[in-house]
Write a structure and sequence with these properties.
- With about 475 residues, this protein is α/β, with parallel strands linked by helices.
- The protein has three domains: about 1-95 and about 290-315, Rossmann fold (3-Layer(aba) Sandwich), CATH 3.40.50.720; about 100-280, NAD(P)-binding Rossmann-like Domain (Rossmann fold, 3-Layer(aba) Sandwich); about 325-479, Rossmann fold (3-Layer(aba) Sandwich), CATH 3.40.50.300.
- Helix 1 runs parallel beside helix 13 (about 290-310), helix 2 (about 35-45) runs parallel beside helix 3 (about 55-65) and helix 5 (about 100-115) packs across helix 7.
- The protein is built from 16 helices and 19 strands.
- Bound molecules: NADP nicotinamide-adenine-dinucleotide phosphate and glyoxylic acid (2 copies).
- NADP nicotinamide-adenine-dinucleotide phosphate binds near residues 209, 211, 213, 235 and 287.
Length: about 475
């Protein structure tokens, strides 16, 4: 079987693949053209692609029949038409987690360089201008004690925010589904609307993926809301910002400074930006350390090997827009139990249900009805020493209570979802937020309400219209 690599990546993964596959690597130090990508897709069983390779419907079409897996050498996968790939039975994978801390370091490097004018200072010295210490030379801005706003508090956003603690900063964050309150207070972060962040933060870090929703998320109107003394850092994707307008704002000093690792039309960079002293630019090097790039290389190689040898890749991505959200206001425990039953009937192997918050008086209400309606004899217990109990057969149901884990970071080291043929129901999934399993149903319960007959419930179902329909039918019955 043939694996093609569209641009030379670190050797680790390539050497690994060479043991079992024919491996072709583009060593020309240039990106492949569309026609070349199509040709490669048509001849390969697997492809390793770069974030700069546009893998659109046409390329996928060319690979149809032979191509089984596309592994993007990046965590972001906005360059790939995932839906077209999935519709043609092609698995798409990426490289999450291994680059999280590395990219967060770069966001901080840009933030500090912008705030303290490091690049200007470097030029100043090299150009022979350092003729003596001066009280008002190259004055920048303080970082410690200020307010950091993170837009897109995911894996990288969280790592950026965590670093702010060492600088005694106040952290505001935004994401579509806020963290549960107890987790917010554990981290000491505060949820805020995007506008609120723009209007209040001294430092803003963008860490959202590029999706139809986040394309030009910071448009003219939003950029106008940013404080005059603020520093904006973008290590996500260039298209998240209206780059031309940002350049205008920076030129007029209506935004103090910016640190940019990504650009709207890479590798081109807006001419105006390049003329400005208050901008620090980098050529998209967020994950560029030797250690991390080696790990990414192994990650894409191992996922390709898993798929080509008939198994499942670890880092499968899904297309955007596949989630369905259901919201219930003021529902009692009977209704919660009915939803649990409706959901339970529709579950298939590989499903993972994530329960956020405390679901019911005795924490296990949801799980009890859920498991009980599948396995008549099940007595659901809250796991004590082990964090999980397993019920039934074909498929087995794992009941996991993450409240048992004392240190949330510990979760990263446990392979909770090892058995792909089983069903998982996870309580206190709050602790799992940055390590989401592939196929999931997320259930949020607002447990801040004293009156347990008036709870708010939100269910987010990823990619499964059947389950969405089943719950809707149950709700119809209440009317
Ligand atoms: P992630 O864990 O998926 O985090 C993304 C976060 O953004 C999620 O928490 C998500 O939370 C939030 N989000 C998504 N849509 C949003 C919206 N419309 N409004 C507000 N928040 C939204 O991904 P990651 O691993 O941190 O990576 C983030 C991105 O960084 C990647 O997609 C990639 O583009 C970029 N990146 C760049 C470099 C570089 O070299 N500069 C390196 C690595 C990654 P909700 O689902 O709750 O909204
Ligand atoms: C880099 O930008 C990535 O998405 O990994
Ligand atoms: C600066 O170098 C100082 O000593 O304050």
């Amino acid at each position: 079987m043939k694996v093609s690599v569209t641009y030379k990546i670190p050797d680790a993964g390539i050497e690994f693949l060479k043991k079992n596959y024919e491996v072709w690597v583009n060593t020309e130090e240039r990106n492949l053209t569309k026609e070349e990508l199509k040709k490669v897709a048509s001849e390969s069983d697997a492809m390793i692609t770069l974030l700069s390779d546009k893998i659109d419907e046409e390329v996928i079409e060319a690979g149809k029949g032979k191509l089984k897996v596309i592994s993007n050498y990046a965590v972001g996968y906005n360059n790939i038409d995932v839906k077209a790939a999935n519709d043609n039975g092609i698995v798409v994978t990426n490289t999450p987690d291994v680059l999280t801390e590395t990219t967060a370091d770069l966001a901080w490097a840009l933030m500090m360089a912008s705030a303290r004018r490091i690049v200007e200072a470097d030029h100043f010295v090299r150009e022979g201008n350092f003729v003596g210490w001066k009280p008002e030379l190259l004055m920048g801005q303080d970082i410690f004690g200020k307010t950091l706003g993170v837009i897109g508090l995911g894996r990288i956003g969280l790592a950026v925010a965590r670093r702010a603690k060492g600088f005694n900063m106040k952290v505001l964050y935004n994401k579509r589904t806020p963290m549960p309150k107890d987790m917010e207070s554990e981290f000491g972060f505060e949820y805020a609307e995007v506008d609120e962040i723009l209007e209040n933060a001294d430092f803003i870090s963008l860490n959202v993926p590029l999706t139809p929703e986040t394309d030009h998320m910071l448009d003219k109107e939003k950029l106008d809301k940013i404080k005059k003394n603020a520093v904006l850092v973008n290590t996500s994707r260039g298209k998240v910002i209206d780059e031309a307008y940002l350049a205008e704002k920076l030129e007029k000093k209506e935004i103090a400074a910016a640190g940019l690792d990504v650009f709207e039309n890479e590798p081109q960079v807006n001419e105006k930006l390049l003329k400005l002293d208050n901008v620090v630019v980098a050529p998209h090097i967020g994950s560029a350390t030797k250690e991390t790039r080696d790990k990414m290389s192994m990650m894409v190689a191992e996922d390709i090997d898993s798929v080509l040898s008939g198994g499942q890749a670890k880092n499968v991505v899904k297309s955007w827009g596949g989630s369905f959200i259901l919201e219930f206001k003021n529902i009692d425990e009977i209704k919660i139990s009915k939803i649990a039953k409706a959901l339970s009937k529709k579950l298939k192997t590989g499903h993972v249900i994530l329960l956020y918050g405390d679901l019911g008086t005795g924490k296990t209400t949801f799980s009890k009805y859920f498991i009980g309606s599948r396995i008549k004899t099940a007595m659901v217990t809250s796991p004590t020493f082990a964090i999980e109990n397993i019920y039934g057969e074909n498929p087995r149901i794992h009941h996991i209570d993450l409240y048992r884990i004392q240190d949330p970071y510990e979760i990263e080291y446990i392979d909770l979802f090892a058995d792909k043929e089983d069903i998982y129901i996870v309580e206190w999934a709050d602790y799992l937020d940055y390590l989401k399993p592939e196929k999931n149903i997320e259930i949020y319960l607002d447990y801040s309400k004293e009156d347990i007959s008036k709870r708010d419930l939100k269910i987010k179902i990823n990619d499964d219209i059947d389950i969405f329909d089943a719950i809707n039918q149950e709700v119809e019955r209440w009317k």
